[in-house]
From TrEMBL:
This is ABC transporter permease subunit. GO terms for cellular component: plasma membrane. Keywords: Membrane, Transmembrane, Transmembrane helix. The keyword Plastid does not apply. PANTHER family: INTEGRAL MEMBRANE PROTEIN-RELATED, MEMBRANE PROTEIN. It comes from Moheibacter lacus. Pfam families: ABC2_membrane_2. One of its GO terms (molecular function) is ABC-type transporter activity.
Length: 279
């Protein structure tokens, strides 16, 4: 395992673009802890203090922060796709196979890299949540309530990285893999929109459809990743009475199960592609 990680480390940090994206990604995660608490937007002549709205109160901070920072995962997806497609275009994969590295070991090295990126990101986010919560929280709730969102964040990254890895192996070209990711995202968005409109037609009105209700399209791969940490629910009642505007919610465990299944499916498909293809 250490041998595979050493080989992968050398490949990743050989490319300048990969180093830059890695540094940008982790700097973005660190910057969130310092910048979010300083944001005080002015709406209708009234300045709002994000911290006083309960954004960093326990247990809401776990969902709020993991939801926000998940957007940055695209930077790691770029690294994964670039790293894998370079193996094909530069002929390093073929050379590694000639030197005795098996296809299974090759894929294992990529999976281990994904796990390391996901683990480091999760540790960073855990630290950010604890820092913001312990610094700004005015709630009397225990710090561990809602902490399952950190675990959901780890699963979210692994699923997204597994999809990126599969597309990179399937399409072999970075541009095509990125395009494939966009097409998949747009395709799932279209299916979701069609399902929503169909439900509105059945219920005879858009306003009668519960956006937080059960949608089959939510269990598509990218949608599953997204729904692991959903948009935090808010209540104006809390704002009026000077409390938190956020409503407590938990991780939907059906999406946890779905994400684990999808992750294994995409990793298995990646292995089957590598095993059958003439490299």
């Amino acid at each position: 395992m250490l041998r595979l990680l050493k080989i992968e480390w050398n490949k990743i940090f050989y490319y300048k673009a990969t180093r830059i994206f890695t540094i940008i990604y982790f700097l973005m995660l660190l910057a969130i802890g310092g910048i979010l608490s300083l944001i005080k937007p002015e709406i209708g002549g009234m300045k709002l203090d994000i911290a006083k709205l309960g954004t960093f109160d326990f247990p809401f901070v776990w969902q709020n922060i993991t939801f926000l920072v998940a957007i940055a995962k695209i930077f790691i997806a770029v690294i994964i796709i670039t790293n894998v497609t370079n193996e094909f275009s530069n002929g390093t994969l073929k050379q590694n196979l000639i030197d005795g590295l098996s296809k299974k070991e090759f894929l294992t090295s990529k999976i281990l890299t994904n796990l390391i990126f996901a683990s480091l990101s999760t540790v960073f986010v855990l630290g950010i949540c604890l820092f913001l919560g312990l610094t700004f929280s005015q709630s009397e709730e225990g710090i561990f309530k809602g902490m399952e969102f950190v675990g959901a964040y780890f699963l979210k990254l692994n699923l997204f990285f597994a999809i990126a890895l599969f597309l990179a192996i399937l399409l072999r070209k970075a541009a095509f893999a990125f395009l494939g990711l966009i097409v998949l995202w747009m395709g799932e968005g279209t299916i979701s929109a069609v399902e929503f409109l169909f439900k509105a037609w059945m219920e005879k009105g858009l306003e009668k459809v519960d956006p937080y209700g059960v949608f089959i399209s939510n269990y598509l791969p990218l949608n599953t990743s997204s729904k692991l940490i959903d948009l935090p629910k808010m209540s104006m009642e809390g704002f009026v009475f000077g409390g938190s505007v956020f409503k407590y919610s938990t991780v939907d465990w059906t999406f946890v199960v779905a994400s684990i299944i999808y992750t294994f499916i995409f990793l298995f498909l990646s292995y089957r592609l590598l095993k059958k293809r003439d490299l």
